[in-house]
Specification:
Strand content of chain A: under 5%
Number of helices of chain A: 11
Number of domains of chain B: 2
Oligomer: heterodimer
Shape of chain A: globular
Radius of gyration of chain A: 19 Å
Order of helices and strands of chain A: HHHHHHHHHHH
Mean pLDDT of chain A: 86
Distance between the termini of chain B: 84 Å
Radius of gyration of chain B: 26 Å
Largest sheet of chain A: none
CATH superfamily of the largest domain in chain B: Immunoglobulins
Number of strands of chain B: 9
CATH architecture of the largest domain in chain B: Sandwich
Order of helices and strands of chain B: HEEEEEEEEEH
Structural class of chain A: mainly alpha
Helix content of chain A: over 70%
CATH class of the largest domain in chain B: Mainly Beta
Low-confidence stretches of chain A: none
Largest interface: A-B, 33 and 29 residues
Chain lengths: ~250, ~180
């Protein structure tokens, strides 16, 4: 087994089998359960609202996944440094890229588990509506690069800043800014600044693709421009995480 | 100050009658609207319906700048309102540069049923040179309700998954 795989297994085990990791998953499940129960109590929903429900839930999963990945990314470097376990890891005869790949693998597995956790909820609220399968597919296609990008961003912050506290603060502010399309109305986003922000914001790309596929019944393949923004974010953050981790290793 | 709302309605009606009655090409266009043969007999939310319209120019001259559009209203008691077609259909209007005398334009109007209720659909047509609005005969249809978010699906998931995760968490916590 390669060192990267070993590190991935350890990271994923820490995240998913530890009490802290399970508490995270339980918190995610509690949020999604609360949303589902809120919907059951509403008897005035039309079929369109059903698509809206799936869209909302997919966007919530992306936001929660991004938050999870960001915190894990910061903790996996900055937290280990504060606990004193990073230096021994860097002293092992494993290539820096191998260590980085192992840690990235841990974030990817955590997101995969969260995605799997969200599927029953999406089925429960959206199975009688439209475009559920396409919505799940779009969440996988667009949500994955966005969420993993935030994980890499967290790693870069954890490596670049001296303490986890400022890294966490900077990361949360960036995430809130990026996820602002969830709370801003369409009219605000139609202004020139809003349109420019939408054009480069990976979170906007994801939610716009969800809206197009789930509510407007557009084809997933027609979302290539949104996917390009999400993949651009993924590649940029991967490069940043790699560069920050290498600087840390020197 | 002395005019009542009834007086305003009367003035508006007179104006409307004058507008339609005085139009030089009133009655030259005719619109027929029928449900498509493949429509479900008792449609429910989520089903697709289609309506077929035939616009005919019965006048002696061509009609220029034709615009035909679909209107949908909800008519069940207590819910009377026009419906925004944005969510129901992407095919809301057709246009034609000209319709020669005796010519016809046939159009299919697909529709996805978003909400339950009793509805009336009408296709209206107007031309550039005619001031009269020509409506089709109305077609009524009912949409049966369909459960949107089913509690029998949501409740097991909403309670089951946190319970399972909570159980595993408790078990791991005791083990630790």
């Amino acid at each position: 087994m390669s060192p990267a795989t070993l590190i991935t297994r350890k990271e994923a085990g820490d995240l998913l089998l530890s009490v802290r990791g399970l508490a995270w998953l339980l918190a995610v499940a509690a949020v999604l359960s609360a949303f589902g129960l809120l919907l059951v109590s509403n008897t005035e929903l039309s079929l369109l609202d059903n698509a809206q429900v799936v869209y909302d839930m997919v966007a919530i999963v992306t936001a929660l996944g991004s938050l999870l990945a960001l915190v894990i990314g910061i903790d996996t470097v900055g937290g280990e440094r504060e606990r004193g376990s990073l230096v021994p890891l860097l002293l092992t005869p494993v290539a820096r890229d191998g260590i980085l790949a192992g840690k990235l693998g841990g974030i990817a597995i955590a997101w995969a588990v969260m995605y799997a956790l969200a599927l029953p909820y999406l089925w429960a609220v959206g199975s009688t509506g439209q475009n559920l399968a396409m919505g799940m597919l779009t969440l996988g296609l667009l949500g994955t690069p966005v969420v993993l990008g935030f994980g890499f961003f967290g790693m870069a912050l954890g490596a670049g800043l001296s303490s986890t506290r400022p890294a966490l603060l900077a990361g949360l502010i960036a995430l809130m800014l990026s996820a602002s399309p969830l709370v801003l109305g369409p009219s605000l986003r139609q202004a020139a600044i809003g349109r420019a922000f939408d054009a480069v914001n990976p979170f906007s790309a994801a939610v716009n693709a969800y809206d197009a596929v789930i509510i407007d019944s557009q084809a997933v393949l027609a979302q290539a421009s949104h996917l390009a923004v999400a993949l651009g974010w993924f590649a940029l953050m991967l490069w940043l995480a790699r560069a920050s981790f290498r600087r840390l290793a020197r | 100050m002395g005019r009542t709302p009834t007086a305003f309605v009367a003035i508006a009606l007179v104006a409307l009658i004058g507008l339609t009655g005085g139009a030089p090409r009133a009655g030259t266009l005719a619109v027929d609207l029928t449900p498509a043969p493949g429509n479900p007999a008792s449609p429910r939310m989520g089903d697709q319906l289609s309506f077929h319209s035939v616009i005919r120019n019965n006048g002696p001259a061509a009609a220029d700048g034709l615009i035909a559009w679909l209107s949908l209203v909800r008519i069940d008691r207590g819910h009377e309102q026009p419906v925004d077609l944005e969510d129901w259909s992407a095919h809301k209007a057709v246009t034609a540069v000209a319709l020669p005398s005796g010519g016809t334009i046939e159009t299919d109007w697909p529709m996805r049923l978003i909400q339950d209720g009793i509805y009336r659909v009408i296709v209206s047509v107007i031309s550039r040179d005619g001031t009269a609005l020509t409506p089709s005969p109305p077609v009524d249809f009912s949409v049966r309700p369909k459960p949107v978010v089913e509690s029998r699906r949501v409740l097991p998931v909403a309670f089951g998954l946190p319970l399972v995760l909570g159980g595993v968490l408790l078990w791991r916590h005791r083990g630790a």
